[in-house]
Structure formats: structure tokens, C-alpha cells
Structures
1.
Amino acid sequence: MITPEKPELAEVLEVKQETSDTKTFTVRFENPKRQKKFFFVPGKFMMVTIFGFGEIPLSISSSPYKTGFMSFTVVNVGNVTNAMHSLKKGDQLGLRGPFGNGFPMQRFRKKNILFVCGGCGIAPLRSAIYAVREKKEEFGKVELMFGCKNPQSILFSQEMDQWGKQGISVQTTVDKPSPKWAGNIGVVTSLFKNSVLSPENTVALLCGPPVMIHFALIELRKKGFKDRQMFASLERMMQCGVGYCSHCNIGNRYACIDGPIFNAAELKELPVKEE
Ligand SMILES: Cc1cc2nc3c(=O)[nH]c(=O)nc-3n(C[C@H](O)[C@H](O)[C@H](O)COP(=O)(O)OP(=O)(O)OC[C@H]3O[C@@H](n4cnc5c(N)ncnc54)[C@H](O)[C@@H]3O)c2cc1C
């Protein structure tokens, strides 16, 4: 039986304020040997302890090819995330993991990739975007479609400019524009009409609020995507991360070990409304 491990000490290397409620934390294990052998695939998550407050699951938002550190992009929504937001460079935290299945990146080779994300859902996809960008020759065309509440809540806008220059087609849209906003307005699915990717040789990677995933899957099916070509992250309350505590149990699966990434065919078999 797999039992939960103890958190290992890590230190904060950098904290970046991304938007009013979101920060990116760059961290590394204090034990250099542990950091050196640390490896993950995009879509995997860590259990992060903020001492005195608790432990939460967070997706790794940095590149899997940058091995000296890892990043988390965190929205301040409650008790633990609020405490994490007060961490500064040099502070300590605890890490367990990586956990979860991650995106099956090997199966995406030679395929076009469509990233569809909403809000902080870009965090785990950012890691996959880096992976695809760093092995450009292994993949086809790449499109990123990103929906946010308003222009102030757009994450990683400078990086998106870079990704655009590196051949990724990046499109953003907002629900509520500001007076200066000259870009797209509407939900992320309103961008799908602009996609030049043929569904036959494309996989779609989705992360965002359940309602976004629900409608995005419906619209992608209309475009001709099959269920096995669409992968979404199903984030569930979880505590142990190793299938031990049953907090993230869905039907006969656990989001922490069988997921959090499921393809749309698998989602249909779970007792959840596609989310
Ligand atoms: C696999 C996975 C990956 C995640 N990756 C990220 C990430 O990269 N960035 C990020 O900002 N957040 C991520 N989350 C969500 C994050 O874990 C929660 O926001 C966090 O646990 C909230 O803890 P809290 O103590 O601050 O909030 P609480 O005070 O516990 O609650 C505040 C709100 O957050 C909701 N919430 C609490 N725990 C969870 C949970 N485990 N999952 C989802 N919602 C929860 C509650 O329903 C409540 O509405 C991820 C969740 C999972 C399961």
C-alpha cells in the first residue's frame, strides 16, 4: 500500500505578483540532490505545505525542462493560499510529490496542439506550453486560446507575447472589457471559429472552471474533435495525493492518482457532469 510521505523542506527563490489576486512562486528543494533528481510531466501537481496553515494541491506551472526549480501560480482564495501569498524570498515551505498522471505528452508527438484555458487554468497548461515550445520540432502547429474575466486578470501576458513570436498562435478574450481594451470580447469558445487547426490531427488540452470545460467540449465536438483527442484537468478536493484518504474519489477513480487529467471519453464514464 502506498502511504503518504512527509513533506520535504523547500525555499522560496522568487515571488512575482501576476495580477491583484495571483502570484507565481519559484521554489526549490533545500536538499540539492532531491532537486537534481526531481522530474515531472506537465499537468502533475505537488502537495504544498504552508507551515502553520495547512497543505494544498498546486499544479506545477514551470517548464519540465528547467530542473533547478519549480513554480506555482496561485490564486488567493482562502486560508492556505492567503498564507502562501505572504511568503517572501528565503521563506520555507514543504513539498510532497509530484502526483497525478499529467498530460500524456508522448502521445501528442507530431500532432497539432490546441490549448484552451480560462483564468488560473493556464497554470498547468503553461508547463505544457513550455514543453511543446522547447521541443518544437516534435509537434505540429500550436494555438493557445485564453479567456479571462477582464483585461486586469490576464496572466502571463508578456510571456504570451514571446510565445507569439516563437510561432504559437495566441488569442485572448475577456468577459468584461476595460475602456482601453481593443481585443476580443466574449467567452473562450467564441475564439474557436478562428482556429486553423484541422481536428483530425489535433489534440485539445483544457483547463479552467468546470463550466468552461463543459461548453468547450461541446463546441470542440461540433468542430469534429473526438472524445479521445480532448484532455481536461479535473480538480477535486484532495488531501493525501496518493489514493489513500479517498477525499477525491469520483466513482471508481481517484482524481489524485487516476487524474487529474482525463480525456473526454473517460470523463463521460465518471459520475460527474463533464467538468
Ligand atoms: C490537482 C489540483 C491542482 C491545482 N492547481 C492549482 C494551481 O495551480 N493554482 C491555484 O491557484 N489553485 C490550484 N488548485 C486549487 C487549490 O488547491 C485551492 O485553491 C486551494 O486548495 C484552496 O485552499 P485554501 O485553504 O486557500 O482555501 P479554503 O479556505 O480551503 O477554501 C477557499 C475556496 O477554495 C475551494 N477549495 C478548497 N480546497 C480546494 C481544492 N483542493 N481544490 C479546489 N478547490 C478548493 C473551496 O471550495 C473554497 O471555495 C488546484 C487544485 C487541485 C485539486
2.
Amino acid sequence: MEDVEELEAKLEEIFRKEEKKFKRIKDEEYYKVRQLAFDQRTVRSLLKLFNKGVLYDLTWVISAGKEALVLAGMGPEGEVAVKVYRVYTANFKKYVDYLAGDYRFIPVKDRDKIIRMWAKKEFRNLKRLREAGVKVPKPIDVTGNVLVMEFIGKDATPAPLLKDLESLDDPESIMNSIIEDIRKAYREAELVHGDLSEYNIMYWEDSHWIIDVSQAVVITHPLAFSLLLRDLERVTQFFYRRFKLTVPDPYKLAEEISG
Ligand SMILES: Nc1ncnc2c1ncn2[C@@H]1O[C@H](COP(=O)(O)OP(=O)(O)OP(=O)(O)O)[C@@H](O)[C@H]1O
Ligand SMILES: [Mg+2]
């Protein structure tokens, strides 16, 4: 990748390929996603990643949501997921509140800085969780508002989310290993995910993979216990509803994990 023009041409190509997929999204949303991808900061960060050798190629759009655009790419170790963050007005307060309770980050008001801190926060959370043995994608690099991590899935097909699975060989053991990871996260990494549900857990090679850890908070955060409880409620409720499992009481679990 030589320069901005070349990178923009590449993004243009990806978006053209993906147009069909975007037809399902409202015009306004499509415009916003494009705007984020072509944003000067994003382009600059992506270019840096190419120059550092972290990225060889960008291939397609994995997901385009309110808070992030996730692109597929290629790096020296194979397929990677490239998460591009966006801070949008409606959620601005959330970022400030979450960062404020976290001693690792000095509070700032600057929007650009917040978004970079947010990307960095997910990178550090992933690292810490991985070190504690929690099943999360391996973080590879963070530059500006762009995070590069291990791709969960294979041959340009991302692993399914838990919410999209109709059946599981052994749902009980999967639920138990997710609860085990929540415990490890709390006890060893001293983090609470804070937005855990069937929407942020992937399933690949007989195992769950926890993703989207940008909002995870340290256990000293004033919201830590209530977030821990909510994570456990959502996970157990999902297994109860979808697989008719007998599930443990989330409140007891939360007390036991944090006790
Ligand atoms: N490491 C990864 N490998 C493969 N796919 C991924 C990876 N990380 C994220 N994805 C895909 O991208 C989607 C969005 O990622 P994530 O949940 O981290 O973003 P988000 O903050 O929830 O953004 P949104 O605003 O879209 O909800 C996931 O649901 C998943 O399908
Ligand atoms: Mg998500």
C-alpha cells in the first residue's frame, strides 16, 4: 500500500462489492458507515497499519454497526479482523462515564482522544483477558481508532454468533465454560465484560469466543457488580430460553464470583 489514494481505491472496491449487503441497511446508515471508513483519521490509521506490516490487505466488510465497522483483512499470520471505532453523539456520555470509572485512563473531553482511548481500551482488555486464559481473539495492534485482532472463523466466513445457533452438541458445557470465563475475567483479569450476551459471543471449533470487550470495566468501577450480574443474567437466560437448560441463579453466582 503506497499512499492514501491507493487505500481509498481499495476501500471503494470493498464498498462496491458489499453494496448488495448494504441495500438492507437504511441509506442514512450506509452513508454513515462509508463516512467512517473514509474518515481522514481512519484512513491515516489504516495506512500506518499497512506501513507497519500489520496489514497486507483489506478484503470485505464483516459488520457495520452503530459503534463500529469491522473489516476483514490479511496480515502476516493470516486472516485478521479490523475494528474501526466511531463515537457518535447519542453515545458520547456512555464513553465518558465508562472511562471515568477506570483508573487506567485519565479523563479527557476531546472526542478524537476519546475514540482513540476507546480503541486502546479494547486492545488492553483483550490482552488482559487473554493472559487470564479467557477465550477472546488475540489482539494484534491498535493504531488510532483502529484495532487489529485475530479473525475468528475461516476462509472469509466469520464464526456464527451464539444467537444464530439453532443447536449445540453440549449446551450445558458451553454455558459452564462461559461462566468459568466470567469468573476468570473477574478473578484473574479483574475485569467485568459489561455487555455480555448471545450477541457478543461467537462459536468456533467447539468453543465459545467472547468478543466486543471495549466497555469492560475494572472490578473497582462503581458499576462493576451490577454489570457482572447483568452479564450472568443474560447468559443464563439465553441458555434457559434456547436450550431449556436448568441454569444457576445469576445473583448467587455474582456474589460468589465477586466474594
Ligand atoms: N475477531 C473477530 N473475528 C471475526 N468476526 C468478528 C471479530 N470481531 C467482531 N466480529 C464480527 O463483527 C461484529 C461486530 O463486532 P463487535 O461486537 O466487536 O462490535 P460492536 O461494538 O458490537 O459494533 P456494533 O455497533 O456493530 O454492535 C460481531 O458481531 C462479529 O460478527
Ligand atoms: Mg457487539
3.
Amino acid sequence: MPEVVDPRGDGTILARLRGVEMAFPTRGWLGAEPPVKILQNIDLEIRAGESLALVGESGGGKSTLARLLVGLLKATAGSVEVMGYDLSRLHRNQRLPLYRQLQMVFQDPSGSLDERWRGRALLSEMRRLHGLDAEDETLIRLLTEVGLSADTLERFPHQLSGGQRQRLALARALAVEPRLLIADEPVSALDLSTQAHILRLLRQLQAHRNLTLVLVSHDLETVAACCDRVAVMYLGRIVEVLPAGHLRRARHPYSRALLDSLPSSRPSERRLRQAIVGEAPSFRQPPPGCPFQPRCGVAEARCRQQVPVLEADADGNRLACHYPLSS
Ligand SMILES: Nc1ncnc2c1ncn2[C@@H]1O[C@H](COP(=O)(O)OP(=O)(O)OP(=O)(O)O)[C@@H](O)[C@H]1O
Ligand SMILES: [Mg+2]
């Protein structure tokens, strides 16, 4: 099986999305309607070895973006390059070796764990598919790495707790030694203490295996503890990218409003709580100008006329706002 080699060589950027758009076909009462654009103008670079969080309210397009990154969806415009390969232009014999490098775990591990298979079959099938050995010794090493005991090889998923199932889903994703792991709300179905264990495990695995991790979450506390950088999404667009350690200094009014979920004593943040009232607008009828303007406490006339462009500052942070807050 051919190995995937990054043709660009330097290996510092693992994935690069340029002008990515994702539109889904829709049907109304009267039949087919124009496709609805869910993602628009997505420009994003994912650095090799980093952990990047995708955050934002429900329905903002985080999972859609995650699925594009592992090739489960094909962008309707723009390009998704991973390890130097454009996912929409892969040669037939490049697909399997490249997809091996891109693994995903989901909120509900049942989606990736066939209930009829024991742990051994679930892990060995993944390895065999990619031409790797599936000796018990190897599988037990994998289980140990995710904090599961060797007897998990004999168990069916329904014989495991929610946390153990998520660990097994992680072991299955790691079984093929991927470079990029995308975890889509991996802990939101678990109780609080299990959440903390799984997040710590993810962080450890990322460091030990030199993995690039993309963590989808709407919990900013999780993200601040687990990730290097954060990309904030709103209505299918990236509106701000900044280091996780600087989250409290976010400049986009939407990012700041999201910080409400963190306990805060800062009066400026408390004031912004009023700015995020109301439902997110519909993708079908997005508001004119900035998508956040109808809910923004600091919007001006220009915000209703022009969509702000996602621009980079000298530190490599990115922001799409006409009137950013001071940091
Ligand atoms: N296959 C599809 N066909 C049509 N619309 C879709 C499809 N997949 C997603 N959508 C729509 O795209 C929008 C964004 O969905 P997505 O699942 O990416 O959001 P999300 O940010 O992951 O939300 P959540 O936090 O609730 O998981 C939603 O309005 C959803 O209905
Ligand atoms: Mg989602």
C-alpha cells in the first residue's frame, strides 16, 4: 500500500481550506429549491501537531466543517487540502492511505461501533483494512493507551459504560495511527467527571502521538483547557481565530458573548450578555452584511451593508468584524 507523503515537504501545515463553501440541496412543498449555503468563505490553516477547537452555537456548521476535513463531505466550492493533497482530486489509489491519516470520533460512539462486534473485531477490522497487523498484543497496547483493560477485546459495546464506549471509539480511530484526529463533541453525552477524564486522555494522546487534533465543542471551558487555538464559527463562517489562552481577550462581539458560559466577574462581559439574545438567523435567509449584526450590541450601519472579511493581524490571529471590541 503506498505511503502518503506530503508533497509540499515542510509539514508545518497539516490542512488548508481555501474559499470553502458547502451547500446542501433542499426540497420544499413544491419540490426542489435552490441549495442552501451552510458554509461560506472558509479559509483556515490547521498546523501540524496543534489542537484546534471549532466553537460556536448549535447549527453554526461545525460538524459540517469537520466532515469536510475527513472527506465525508465534498465541498461545493473552494479546496480542502490535507497533507498537501486536494481531497477532491485524489487519485483512486491515494484515497485509502490518505483517509487512514484522517480519523474522526463522534458525540455518540455507537455510530462508529457496530453493536454486533466485540472489541477485538472492532479494532482488528480497522487495522486489517489498512494492511496493519492485528495481533492481540497490539490491540491490548491500544486499549491500555486509552485506559481500557484487555478484557475489552471480549466485550460488545453494549457491555461498556458510555465513557468506556467513547474510549473504545478512540482506540478504533487511533488503531490506524492517524495524523489528524477530529473529535466532534466527544464528551457532551457523558457525565461531568467522565468528560474530564476523556478530555485529559485526548490531550495526552495528542502530545504522545504528536497528533493534530480538531476538537468540536460549544463549551468554551473545555476548549480553553484542551486546545492551543480556537476558531469561532457563526452561521457557517469563521469569525475569529485566536490562541485558546487569549480567549478572554477575544475581539469579536460574538466570541465575547459566547464567553458568558464561563463564570466571569468582568462587568464588560456581563453587559454583553444582553447582546446575544434571540435565535441565530436562518441559513435560508441570512441577514444582509455581517451575519451577527441583528444580535450584536455594537453594530452600526456599515455592519448591515458589508460582510466583514476575515483578516489576519500581526500575531496571526484572525478576525471578521467592522467594529471589534478592544482586547
Ligand atoms: N446533509 C445535510 N443536508 C441539509 N442540511 C444539512 C445537512 N447537514 C447539516 N445541515 C444543516 O447545516 C447546518 C449546520 O449543521 P451542523 O451539524 O454542521 O452544525 P453544528 O455547528 O455541528 O451544530 P451542533 O452544535 O448542534 O452539532 C444546520 O442547519 C443543519 O440542518
Ligand atoms: Mg455538530
4.
Amino acid sequence: MFPFYTLQNIQSAARLSPPARLAVFGDPVGHSLSPQMHNPALAACGIDASYVRLQVKTEEFLPALRALRELQFVGANVTIPHKFTALDSVDEVEPAARRLGAVNTILFRPDGTTLGRNSDGPGFVRTIQEEFRSDVGDLRILLLGAGGGAGGAVAVQSALEGCSQLILTNRTESKARTLAATLGDLLPGDRCRTLPWTADDLARALPDIDLIINGTSLGMSPDDPPLLPDGCLTRDHLVYDMVYKPLVTPLIATARAAGAKAINGLPMLLWQGAQSFEWWFNQPAPVGAMRAGLEAAVASVADI
Ligand SMILES: NC(=O)c1ccc[n+]([C@@H]2O[C@H](COP(=O)([O-])OP(=O)(O)OC[C@H]3O[C@@H](n4cnc5c(N)ncnc54)[C@H](OP(=O)(O)O)[C@@H]3O)[C@@H](O)[C@H]2O)c1
């Protein structure tokens, strides 16, 4: 198996044993951990298929999608930079994916048409359920990094779940305000609001927050500034850092030292993958095999 296939040689992936029937579209895509998560799942379920990476440029996306359909693929995932291209390329888009503004999972249906869905939102909900035993709808949420793709998806899904409160903050505050304006129909009144990213504002808000989410890339480098002012986390907080390299970020370490429950971004990768698998095969995903594959992949790569 190659590290990744292209539109030109994707036919050879279909001749693998087991044959490729699932792929992740990306550019670049060589770093994607999805094969290490999905191939153990396929083996655990006795499905005669494998999952490969497919590196295509934007203009190749649609021809590659048609090629996969002709090669009898079951479905595909889509990662950067193609999540928006995918939205316009599939025959039908599920309403939740339309609201999230991106497609990351494609299903090839028996009638030859394609359906685009987004497992990032449901993956986030399942992460909070499985890791914190909490429902997003019950929580008062503070999102740091409401200007990015990951933060935006989490914000929209939190609003779709009807969370008790959603406070959006971002280095570039205007992006948080733009996002908040799109969520007013789901969270009326002041249930969705923005907050300036200052130490004083954060310290005032945090006593009334249940779940703190880091949707920024801060925490990936040891030189990054702290996300929150000192001493404002307590054992009552749930902390979800979407960063997964390093596995224990400074935010997670600080939260755990304060007695709070804190997790990194790996569970969301796992649960969005499990959701995609369940859509493709209409059966429960073997989450244990997927988690083991993902953890082994993270442990074995120096730079993910
Ligand atoms: N666990 C998962 O499944 C998963 C999935 C996707 C992404 N992620 C992680 O989530 C993080 C964000 O990814 P993304 O794709 O959303 O990236 P993105 O679209 O580039 O967004 C980056 C976000 O981080 C903020 N930011 C960047 N540098 C900052 C700084 N120095 N100070 C304050 N804020 C800063 C940006 O604020 P501005 O708007 O002001 O620029 C923006 O809100 C990454 O660490 C990524 O690895 C995890």
C-alpha cells in the first residue's frame, strides 16, 4: 500500500488485497491518521475492504469522486482543503452538514448517487457523552477560538444541541461576532454571546461555565502563551482541548492540577471516525479497535 494514491493510480488501490473501498481525500493527505483508525475497524468487523489516502487537487476532486464510484467504493472522508469543495460536489447534502458548512463524509448510495454528511458535529457530541458523561445540550460552554474551522463546527453543533449557554471568544473578535449572528435562531436571547479575549473578561465568565473548549492551535508549541488567566479553573470544570499533539497540553495539565476533568483532541478524531463508519456500514463501529489503532499511530509518528 502506498502512503497515498492519486487520481492517476487509484485503480491500483482497488486491486489491493483487501481491495480499497474507502478513502480520505486531502491535499496534502500523507499525515492523515484515518487509515490507521479505519483499517483495524474493517478487519475487526471481517469486512473485505481497506481504507487508503487519496491526494487530489481541487480541480481533480469531482473526477476522483466519479472514479471511486465506478471502482465500487463504499464511501470516503474529506479533509483540508476539500471540505467545502465536497459540499458542492455531492448529489445531496444532509441538512446538518449544510448548516455546518462542510462535508467530511461521503456515502456512495446503491442508486449511484452521492450523499454528503458531516461527522465532526456528531463526533463532538459523542466525545462529550463518552468522555465526560454529559450532554452538550445541558452545558454552559465557553469556546476559545471561534474563528477557525474546528471551533466553528463545534459552535454550530453546540447550538443545534440547544446548549444552555454558548460564549464565543476569539483573538479576532469580529469572527466570533459573525459566527454568533448565525446562531441566534438556535440560541435566542443572550444564550449565545461573544466575549472579548481579555484576562479580566475570561476570569469573570469562568465561574458560570461548565465546559471550556480550546478550538485554537495554542498549546501545540511550548512557547505558546497560556489560554486562561491563572487560578480560574476549578474541579467543577470540564476542559476539552482540541489539540492532540502534544497529548497533554499546558491547558490540560493546568486543568487536571485544579482537579478538573480534561481531555485532548484524540477522542474527537475517534468518535467522528466511528460516526462515519456507522454511516457507511449501518452497524456499530468497533470503537476499541479504532482507538487502539489511533493511539498506536500517534505513538509511532514524530510529526502528525
Ligand atoms: N481533535 C480534532 O478532531 C480536531 C479537528 C480539527 C482541528 N483540530 C485542532 O484544532 C485547532 C484549530 O484547527 P482549525 O482547523 O480550526 O484551524 P484554523 O481554521 O486555522 O483556526 C485557528 C483558530 O486559532 C486561533 N488562533 C491561532 N493562533 C492564535 C494565537 N496565537 N492566539 C489566539 N488565537 C489563535 C485563530 O484565531 P483568529 O481567527 O484570530 O486567527 C482561529 O480561531 C488545531 O490545533 C487543530 O489541530 C482538532
